[in-house]
Design a protein that fits this description.
Blueprint: E1 2-3, E2 27-32, H1 36-41, H2 45-56, E3 62-67, H3 78-89, E4 97-98, H4 117-123, E5 134-138, E6 150-157, E7 160-167, H5 181-191, E8 196-201, H6 226-234, E9 240-245, E10 258-264, E11 270-276, E12 289-295, E13 304-312, E14 317-319, E15 326-330, H7 332-336, E16 356-360, E17 369-375, E18 388-391, E19 403-409, E20 425-437, E21 442-446, E22 477-478, E23 485-490, H8 492-499, E24 507-511, E25 517-520, E26 529-535, H9 552-562, H10 571-574, H11 584-597
Parallel strand pairs: 2-3, 3-4, 7-8, 8-9, 9-11
Antiparallel strand pairs: 1-10, 2-12, 5-6, 6-7, 10-11, 12-13, 13-14, 13-15, 16-26, 17-19, 18-25, 19-24, 20-23, 20-25, 20-26, 21-22, 21-24
Length: 598
């Protein structure tokens, strides 16, 4: 869903402001569009941009700088990298910043399988040593040429804490696989659920037609389109409020290389998507950059405003057309003070009224808990008797190998005392876990495949996949970072499904990051506990097995009960004539009901 983008208002000329050490009452994020032409031709524009930022960092309260990719034009040309290294070094020690890879930053244009050695040499991890605002890089899978191409940064401005995600060109993978770029990005978001987030990636929004990208341009078709990034990462994570990108320039004249739109995410909040790329204008854009100003109290329809200006430090000119100068009214406190729609670690809620069933290994005679972990690093090894289960994206540390945990509570649905009657309305179900080692947490998915305590990574065909076959695609919950002590997750939807006849295969815990989460198993002194509050479903006369209908299975159960054989039977339902006991007359009545249902 798109809202009409806010039109620009009349503004004074920017000019080049000498730093006075005095801060404005607004703060600014600067976006640097594709600098490839400046690097190729060695013109001063790229260095003018960063020098202006350094000179005005205090006066304009510049909180962060984001380069939108295509740092250079030829990824194998060392001279171009040296030019941009010198330009960006002007920002060192002045302001936090990030770069992302563009298609031109690879040794072979359009081919992500070609070398990125130059990018990593000049803009890799070593560049940010000692920077307290640098969060980290990923994903890491042991491929020196491909690892750590995406990064994240932390900064604060205006009394708010922000996260910036810098994702490689056409970021690959899925959000549930932390060994991929999208999965790594999701793990970072889960680690910082209360930080409003800006995401930058090279190719995302097109200018003509104005829409998110729908086809991959990378040579081997590895990666994700802008549309997929929106659907799988941006829209479900309410803390992401802005997406920046470059690359596209299909429009003509002053409209070329610019686009902006306001989209509505899954939580109903606005996301501001901005494209800027001036490489095909005169002199590659003669140094045009984007100033994104966060102005408290300047809104009309909301208290505050984000104002976008497009300015060239080299020419001291501001672009004032509606594609270059525009803004959005917003409530900073409402949007930046929390993370709408972003799951946070679940705390144990108050127990609602109604019957409650509790299941814990070796408690009140219950012995139905099965759990284990499966490790990619030891694919044939079974951990069914381990007292600690680990969930992590890099186990052993630095290996990039995933470890998953599996958990199931058998025998929770039934008509015996202590069980949840079939067809019950499950009001609340939580699993309490004892966390013995804090970590990045997990995405918890309901399983659909059979497994046992002896299952291994190999026996489950390379770990459990959330493909709809082995496990349900949508996560029951994402825990976010988990601390030592009691952790509780809401599994109400899962138990409700099981009460209504779905297969109970338990859950898989898939890692949200490389920092492993350790939980105590059913073999430990503090086994997992499932607590379920429910309202029993309406009793159906004759439905002795509680499956919702009356058939020959019910007749058989009633007959065996009359004969004195042990059996799992709903005596209230089996007492068809309502005389207070179950006898041969009830069996006959049940048979008649069953025949009538055929």
């Amino acid at each position: 869903m798109l809202k009409a983008a806010g039109a620009g208002v009349g503004l004074t000329a920017l000019g080049t402001t000498a730093s006075t050490g005095q801060q404005t009452d607004y703060w600014t994020v600067v976006a640097l569009p594709d600098t490839q032409v400046y690097a190729k031709e060695g013109t001063p524009y790229g260095k003018d941009q960063t020098q202006w930022i350094a000179d005005n960092a205090d006066a304009e309260n510049i909180a962060f700088v984001s380069h939108e990719g295509d740092v250079v034009d030829h990824g194998d040309d060392d001279a171009e990298w040296q030019y941009m290294d010198e330009a960006m070094s002007t920002l060192d020690g002045v302001v936090p910043y990030a770069t992302v890879t563009g298609n031109h930053d690879y040794a072979t244009l359009w081919d992500r399988n070609s070398s990125v050695a130059n990018y990593k040499e000049y803009f890799g991890l070593s560049r940010y040593d000692g920077r307290d605002w640098f969060g980290g890089a990923g994903p890491t899978n042991g491929d020196e040429g491909r690892d750590n191409l995406s990064t994240y940064q932390l900064f604060s401005a205006g009394g708010y804490d922000f996260l910036h995600l810098a994702l490689e060109w056409e970021p690959p993978g899925t959000v549930d696989d932390p060994s991929t770029t999208l999965g790594w990005a999701q793990s970072v978001l889960d680690r910082y659920p209360n930080r409003a987030t800006i995401l930058t990636t090279h190719s995302y929004l097109r200018d003509e037609p104005q829409q998110r990208t729908r086809e991959l341009q990378e040579a081997s078709k590895v990666g994700n389109t802008g549309r997929t990034v929106w659907e799988n990462l941006v829209s479900p994570n309410g803390q992401i409020f802005m997406v920046l990108c470059g690359h596209w320039h299909d429009g003509t004249g002053k409209s070329g290389g610019e686009a902006h739109q306001v989209s509505t995410n899954d939580a109903g909040s606005s996301v501001y998507e901005l494209l800027a790329n001036y490489q095909f204008r005169d002199d590659g854009g003669h140094g045009l950059l984007r100033r994104i100003e966060f102005r408290p109290g300047d809104g009309s329809d909301a208290p505050d405003r984000i104002q976008i200006r497009t300015y060239s430090p080299s020419t001291d000119e501001e672009q004032t057309d509606s594609d270059s100068q525009f803004g959005f009214d917003i409530d900073f406190d409402a949007r930046f003070g929390s993370s709408p729609g972003t799951p946070e670690p679940t705390e144990t809620p108050e127990t609602p009224d109604g019957p409650t069933a509790t299941f814990q290994q070796r408690t009140d005679g219950y012995s139905g808990t099965t759990d284990t972990m499966i490790r990619a690093a030891e694919p044939e090894t079974s951990y069914g008797t381990a007292e600690t289960l680990s969930i992590g994206g890099s186990d052993p540390e630095g290996s990039g190998s995933s470890t998953q945990a599996l958990l199931r509570f058998d025998g929770i649905i039934g008509t015996d005392s202590g069980q949840i009657p079939p067809g019950s309305d499950v009001k609340q179900a939580t699993v309490a876990l004892e966390t013995s080692g804090e970590g990045d947490g997990a995405a918890v998915h309901r399983l659909r495949t059979d497994w046992s305590a002896d299952s291994t990574w190999a026996s489950l065909d390379g770990g459990v996949q959330t493909d709809g076959s082995q496990a349900v695609t949508d996560a029951v919950t994402r825990t976010g970072a988990v601390e030592t002590g009691k952790s509780s997750i809401d599994v109400t939807a899962s138990v409700e499904a099981w009460a209504n006849g779905a297969q109970n295969a338990g859950w898989v815990f898939r890692p949200l990051g490389n920092d492993g989460w350790d939980i105590q198993s059913a073999d430990s002194d503090v086994p997992p506990t499932l607590t379920v509050s429910y309202t029993p479903g309406e009793t159906v006369a004759g439905d002795a097995d509680g499956d919702g209908d009356v058939d020959t299975d019910d007749v058989d159960r009633i007959q065996r009960s009359v004969a004195g054989e042990d059996g799992n039977i709903d005596r209230d339902a089996a007492d068809v004539d309502g005389d207070g006991d179950v006898d041969i007359g009830d069996a006959v009545s049940a048979r008649n009901l069953a025949e009538g249902n055929q």
